[in-house]
Design a protein that fits this description.
By secondary structure, this protein is mainly alpha-helical. The chain has one domain: DNA polymerase, domain 1, CATH 1.10.150.900. Helix content is 43%, strand content 0%. The protein is built from three helices and no strands. The longest helix has 20 residues.
Length: 83
Amino acid sequence: MNAIEKVTEEIWPGVPVIPTMSAWATDGSRLRVAGIPVYGTSGLFVDIDDNREHGKDERVGVKALYESQEFLRQLVKVLSSGR
């Protein structure tokens, strides 16, 4: 969580990180069975009035897509460097 909070603050100052539980299955289920904790994050913001998640016309905004990509890139750097 510390790494997620650090990168979130760098990209979106003042945006809180709020843990939630997802009810759907992920590839992480196999890791959890092996005793390895799994956490998911995306950094993807969607328009609350235009959420087309998993619809036949699923889409996200271009700016949100690139910000999410940058968030994940920076997160991998932080996690892999131990900073």
